[in-house]
Amino acid sequence: MDPKGTLPKGRIDNRRPPLVEYEKPVLDSFRQATGLDATRLDDRDPRWLKHRAGVLTQFMREQRRIVGAKPITATVMSGERENLFQAMDLEAWIADGLVNTIMPYTPVERLTSTADSWDNPRDLDFFVRITRGTKCELAPNMMPRLMPPETDLKRAKAIYDLGIDRLFFWDTNARYHFDPSWSVLRRLGHKGALPAPARPGKKLHKLGDWDLSYATPG
Fold first, then answer.
1. Contact assessment for residue 7 and residue 1, using Cβ atoms and an 8 Å cutoff
2. pTM, full prediction
3. First-last CA distance in the chain
4. Domain end among 66, 89, 104
5. Rounded to an integer, what distance in angstroms lies between the CA atom of residue 32 and that of residue 27?
6. 198-217 pLDDT, tens per residue?
7. Do 48 and 5 sit in the same domain of this protein?
């Protein structure tokens, strides 16, 4: 966002944190509001975090003004303190109707392809609390991408048991281990009828005149 409080042209959302750090307009507005130099404060000083979050919330307000009633979905961090450190005041966003769905991800220090999330489903309590009774939906991200079907089922059930109705799967194209995981993974959205982790189908050895047991090089 520029100093006038308007969105830049072109791409407006970053792929991942950090979203707001020590950009000059943010430093200047903080100094004007508090008389303090943010570069001399602890990076977790609550005054600085609150100010940065206010900048991003204003960005979200402007985004809402532009898109109107169209749904806005935000991938967010894994907990209350981590979101605030990344300038995301989720409670303000939800209260002001700035997001329709939030999708909590894994902790930022674990942003890898093997990152594990919600092995303890109670880590979602904060998100359940701030979305309960609101129009904002909660859809926790299921990671890592490739888990045994039994783990997928156990984790999905634990999340649903918290009263959550949605799941989010980052990079579904990378969840390619079809046997036996995909038959379970593709049906985890059926909250009331979770599938059994059965191995699907049978291995084909012959298809018409084709001998499928013969592997060609390359």
1. yes
2. 0.80
3. 51
4. 66
5. 9
6. 665 677 788 888 888 877 66
7. yes
